[in-house]
Amino acid sequence: MIFNQKEDGSCDIVFSEKEIEIILKHKKLCLTPEFLKHFSNNLIKIVIEFDKKFDENTKNLSTTKDINITGTQPKKND
């Protein structure tokens, strides 16, 4: 998977064909310890970069376990 952040602070997560196949078949991705370590290392870097592009309102958002977070469909030009 690749994280592509846009200038407005939003981000697309792009899955490989193999990842899509696995998700369609199993409804999940299983992360090995090695994969998870690399993923978490990259995620920390990504989180720092994401925060730089967020506007002040987005930077100040708080997340609790009660908040329902859902993704959206890509726009036609994405």
Walkthrough of the structure:
This protein has 78 residues and is mostly helical. The protein has a domain of 53 residues. It has three helices and two strands; from the N terminus they run ββααα. The chain has a two-stranded antiparallel sheet with strand order 1-2. β1 and β2 form a beta hairpin.
Q: What sequence of helices (H) and strands (E) makes up the elements?
A: EEHHH
Helix content: 40-55%
Given the C-alpha coordinates, what overall shape results?
globular
Assembly type of the shown chains? single chain
Structural class: mainly alpha
Radius of gyration: 15 Å
% residues in beta strands: 5-15%
Could you name the ranges where pLDDT drops below 50 across 5 or more consecutive residues?
A: none
Number of strands: 2
Head-to-tail CA distance between termini? 16 Å
Mean pLDDT: 86
Helical segment count: 3
How are the strands ordered across the major sheet? 1-2
